[in-house]
Design goal:
Two copies of one chain form a homodimer. The first copy, chain A, has three helices and eight strands. By secondary structure, chain A is α+β, with helices and mostly antiparallel strands. Chain A starts with a strand and ends with a strand. Chains A, B: This is Pyridoxamine 5'-phosphate oxidase. Chains A, B: InterPro entries: Pyridox_Oxase-rel, Split_barrel_FMN-bd.
C-alpha cells in the first residue's frame, strides 16, 4: 500500500473519466457516479438542473473519488478529495465550461457543478 | 437510462467485488473504496481496527456504491444503498464472517463492518 503524492493524484485525476461525488441528501450520505473533467485544480461535472445532485451540491462541501482496480491481480489505485462545490449560474462561465472535453453520458444534462479540490489523497496497491 | 429493480440491484451487488463506502468523518463527507461481499441483505467489509472507517462506521448510517462502466461504449450500471453500519465485536460472529469468500487486498485487516442494505437503487445506461 503506497501513499501517492499530490502530483501523482492530479495525474491520475487527469487520466480518469468516471468518478463518484459524495454529498449529503436530507442529512443522509449519498453517492452518485459522474463523468468528470479535471480543469486546473477543480473537477467539472455535468448534471441536470433540479436533480438531487444539483440541489445538494449548489453550495456545499462534498467528497469526490475515482479509482481503477483490477480484480485479477488485486492491484489498483484510488484518489479522493474533499472540497467546496457550487453550481455554475453565470452564462459566461457555463459557456467557457462547454468548451471543455466533457460530454454527458445521459441526455438532458446542461447544468455544471464545479468542485474545488482540497484535501487530496491517494493510494496505490501493488503486488 | 433504465431504473433497475431491487432484484437486479441485488444480482449486480452479488457479482461485484469492489465498492465504495461513504461516511462522515469529522462532519465532512468521506469515501473509501473497499472490497466487499454480499451476505444475504447485508454488505460485509474488512478493515483494520482503529482505521478511520472502522471508527466512523461503528454505529452510523452510511451509503454504499458499486458500479461498472465502459468508457468506450458509454454504457454501464451503478447500484447504491443507504443503511445502518456497525462493527462486529462478538468473536462468534467474526468467526462466522471469516468463512465468507472475502479476502482483504491489504494486510492487517481483520475487523469486520456490516452494512444492512436499505434504500437500494440502481441505474443502467444502454445505447
Amino acid at each position: 500500500m503506497q501513499v501517492l503524492s499530490p502530483e501523482e493524484c492530479m495525474a491520475l485525476l487527469a487520466s480518469a473519466r468516471i468518478g463518484r461525488i459524495v454529498y449529503t441528501d436530507r442529512a443522509l450520505p449519498a453517492v452518485q457516479p459522474v463523468d468528470f473533467h479535471l480543469d486546473g485544480e477543480r473537477i467539472v461535472i455535468l448534471t441536470s438542473s433540479g436533480s438531487k445532485l444539483a440541489v445538494a451540491a449548489a453550495n456545499a462541501v462534498v467528497a469526490f473519488e475515482t479509482d481503477e482496480y483490477e480484480v485479477e491481480t488485486r492491484t489498483g489505485w484510488s484518489v479522493t478529495a474533499v472540497g467546496r462545490s457550487r453550481t455554475v449560474d453565470e452564462p459566461e462561465e457555463a459557456a467557457a465550461l462547454a468548451r471543455l472535453p466533457l460530454r454527458s453520458w445521459a441526455p438532458g444534462r446542461d447544468h455544471y457543478i464545479v468542485v474545488d479540490l482540497q484535501q487530496l489523497s491517494g493510494r496505490r496497491i501493488r503486488r
